[in-house]
Structure formats: C-alpha cells, structure tokens
Write a structure and sequence with these properties.
- By secondary structure, the chain is of the alpha/beta class.
- The chain has one domain: Glutaredoxin (3-Layer(aba) Sandwich), CATH 3.40.30.
- It has four helices and five strands.
- Strands 1-3-2-4-5 form a five-stranded mixed sheet.
- Strand 2, helix 2 and strand 3 form a beta-alpha-beta unit.
- The radius of gyration is 12 Å and the shape is globular.
- It starts with 6 loop residues before the first strand and ends with a helix.
- The model has no long low-confidence stretch (mean pLDDT 95).
Length: 109
C-alpha cells in the first residue's frame, strides 16, 4: 500500500488506530473480491488525501478480521463507519459517490 493515504487496520491495531485516534476516522469494511468495494477504494484514497490532517481513512479487510466485522454488525460490504472520539457516529452501506461520502465526512469535522 505504498503511496496510499489510507491505512490498513486489523483486529490487533483497531483500538489504537481508530478508537484512540485524536482525529475522526472513516473505517471502510471491505474485501478484495467485492466489486463495489473496489469501486469505492479510489474514492476513499481521494478523500483521505484531500482531508489529510483532519481525518483518518482506515480499511478493514473483513475476510482477515471477522471479529471486527462481527463486533460492528457488518452484514454487507462495503460498509463505512464514521468514528468520532472513539465511537461510531454514522454509517453508510454500499458504494456511494464521492460527494455522498464527503458530506458524511464534513459532518464529522
């Protein structure tokens, strides 16, 4: 993931990188085999770059981190959870447009 602005988060790093983050965090629950997830990926890279220093964009591979998907009740992917002060405050299920995702981000900032 060289050169990307998003971070990969695992069950082992979720607490430190998301729940204890000083910035709001957009967490994308995804899987490599998911077509809509692959469509959202470049959009999230753009959002991460454009909001650098104000927002962290994290990605959780649900195949590799099933406990996290279960903990947050992820039933379909892509699902984006929006965290503020360590707690989920909003969510978006399915592939959304950059504008839709950015509006949710703006409400966090």
């Amino acid at each position: 993931m060289e050169g990307t602005k998003t971070i990969a988060v695992t069950e082992g790093t979720f607490e430190a990188q998301v729940e204890k983050s000083s910035l709001p965090v957009l967490v994308d629950f995804w899987a490599p085999w998911c077509g809509p997830c692959r469509m959202v990926g470049p959009i999230l890279e753009e959002i991460a770059a454009e909001n650098e220093g104000k927002l962290t964009v994290a990605k959780v591979n649900v195949d590799e981190n099933p406990k996290l998907a279960s903990k947050f009740g992820i039933r379909g992917i892509p699902t984006m959870l929006f965290f503020k002060s360590g707690a989920p405050v909003d969510q978006m299920v399915g592939a959304g447009s950059k504008q839709m995702i950015q509006q949710k981000v703006d409400s966090l900032l």
